[in-house]
Design a protein that fits this description.
single chain; 485 residues; mainly alpha; two-stranded antiparallel ribbon; disulfide bond
Length: 485
């Protein structure tokens, strides 16, 4: 195991370490030789992503997710489903999300008036205008008097800006802060027609599908016919690059969610105490090459593609955060400085990756046609973000909304290159802005993909992590003292 991965796992406890090791030990026999080689539609190979993520990215992104600025996410889990009458929320208690008490939220995050934009902006006269800009999140910025009006215009522009996601109104009474570390993503027992309906709507109504393809795109669909997975994917070759990218991102997002559910599954509940752990049978059902007729490894490759897209977005957005005006503000000056230093270090690493996805290859044809396709692409994804409000399990809805918004933010970044390049150093820009909600979603969504990449690779690579029962016992002992071999 690499030093970076060892450090990242440190402190998570013996139970979590054993859970990960036991799960990974089974993966090698399932898809070991299947998830390799160069990814389609880019020049990057999986082995390069593995080494780069494990040694450079994963240890740092794990630490970043534990910082106060990134662990608290404000979300509205009570928004009604806009497409159909939802049949009620999941009745299983493990579906529940525990909102964070007001007293636990750092003052710089929860109090809009704690943001220090300028002396004038903190005056009574300007408080109303600052409240209008509250949705910009806890970014501690210092503006000159001349820039004050520009700041207010900035907030108004952000309200009308084209987004790839439907953003929650953080000012809504129904919006609450959630501690992501205390509400981890895992399988809660939520399944059946409600869950199937969500994914079916995403795949069948929002992914681009050729008229010649009659079988469902939804991998959960009960009728698969005699078609094997490889021949099913040949229809992708007939789509333009943009539509192929769209499908692979949705498939990668689905694989990401499924991997977390398989690794942290509700196995049983004894005397009111739930037992969580890896469900190998469920993993086989979703990813085994034989049981999925060859589609399982494709789904995992699409997860790598998702990782690559979000990695590219982080490298492109670095100039936004490198400006002195941007401070990840929680109210703790020392911690805030450390958080920004860690974030900038991650950005430097992302920029050093030599095989990024080239987003300039998208929407590069006839200007009129490219603009129309880009808008169609954006609206399809925005619709998917709205479907997340139809998820019946609160915990599933929380992570679905966060990861969808994270990917939507990545897409927004990729297609805002000119605006990012023209950012002023010491004042807000009308051309490109990120809300705190988008920032938290972006880094946490990428953190999920980073974890899953480690999860896959270390389960596939020669079964190095777990050779015997003695190895498991040794892992337990070493984890208990803060080290995992």
């Amino acid at each position: 195991m690499s030093p970076g991965f060892r450090r990242a796992v440190t402190g998570q406890g013996a139970a979590a370490a054993v859970q990960l090791l036991v799960t990974l030990s089974f993966l090698s026999s399932l898809v070991k030789t299947q998830v390799t080689g160069v990814l389609d539609d880019c020049l990057c190979d999986i082995d390069s992503i593995d080494k780069f993520n494990t040694y450079k990215i994963f240890p740092k992104i794990k630490k970043l997710q534990e910082r106060d600025y990134f662990r608290y996410y404000k979300v509205n889990l009570k928004r009604p489903c806009p497409f159909w009458a939802e049949d009620g929320h999941c009745s299983i208690k493990d579906c529940h999300v525990e909102p964070c008490p007001e007293s636990k939220i750092p003052v710089g995050i929860k109090a809009g008036r704690s943001n220090k934009y300028s002396q004038a902006a903190n005056s009574t006269k300007e408080l109303d205008d600052c409240e209008q800009a509250n949705k910009l999140g806890a970014i501690n910025s210092t503006l000159s008097n001349e820039s004050k009006e520009a700041f207010i215009d900035w907030a108004r522009y952000d309200d009308s800006q084209d987004h790839f996601c439907e953003l929650d109104d953080e000012r809504s009474p129904a919006a609450q802060y959630v501690d992501l570390l205390l509400n981890p993503e895992r399988y809660t027992g939520y399944k059946g027609s409600s869950a199937w309906r969500v994914w079916n709507s995403i795949y069948e109504e929002n992914c681009f599908k050729p008229r010649s393809v009659y079988r469902p795109l939804n991998p959960l669909a009960p009728s698969r016919g005699e078609d094997d997975g490889e021949s099913f994917y040949t229809w992708l070759e007939g789509l333009c690059l943009e539509k192929r990218v769209f499908y692979k991102l949705i498939s990668g997002l689905h694989a990401s969610i499924n991997l977390h559910l398989c690794a942290n599954y509700l196995l049983e509940e004894t005397w009111g105490k739930p037992s969580w752990g890896p469900n190998i049978k469920e993993f086989r059902r979703r990813f085994d090459p034989v049981e999925t007729k060859g589609e399982g490894p494709r789904r995992l490759k699409n997860l790598y593609f998702l990782y690559l897209i979000e990695l590219r977005a982080l490298s492109k957005v670095a100039p936004y955060f490198e400006r002195s005006i941007v401070d990840l503000y929680t109210g703790n000056v020392e911690d805030d400085a450390d958080t920004k230093t860690l974030l900038l270090s991650i950005f430097q690493d992302t920029k050093s990756f030599p095989m990024h996805f080239d987003e300039k290859s998208m929407f590069a044809g006839d200007k009129k046609g490219a603009k129309s396709l880009k808008e169609e692409f954006r609206l399809h994804f925005k619709n998917i973000s709205r479907i997340m409000d139809c998820v019946g399990c609160d915990k599933c809805r929380l992570w679905g909304k966060l990861q969808t918004q994270g990917l939507g933010t990545a897409l927004k970044i990729l297609f805002s290159e000119k605006e990012i390049q023209n950012l002023p150093e010491n004042s807000p820009s009308k051309g490109f802005q990120l809300t705190r909600q988008e920032i938290v979603a972006l880094l946490n969504a990428f953190g999920r993909a980073s974890y899953e990449t480690v999860f896959i690779i270390y389960g596939l690579e020669e079964n190095r992590l777990l050779h015997s029962l003695e190895g498991t016992l040794l892992a337990v002992i070493m984890a208990a003292v803060g080290r995992v071999c």
